[in-house]
Design a protein that fits this description.
Elements (H helix, E strand, L loop, with lengths): L10 H26 L5 H14 L1 H15 L1
Amino acid sequence: MFSPHGPFSPVQLILPLSVFLPCLAFWGWMFRDMIDNDDLPSSAKENWTFAFILLNVFAAVIYYSTVYKNRR
C-alpha cells in the first residue's frame, strides 16, 4: 500500500491529512486562545509560546487541560 514504486493511492494522501489537519486546527485554536487570554501574565505567555513552538500539539493538549478547561 505505501510502496514507493507502486501506483499512487488516494489513501496515501487522505489518511495523513485526516490526522494532520484536525491537530493543526486544535493547535491554532489553543494558540489563539493563549494569545487572547488576558489572565495570563506576559512571562507565562512567553513560556507557553516557547512550549507551543517546541512541543506543538502536545503543548496544546497540556494548555487545554491546565488553563483553558479551568477557565471555562
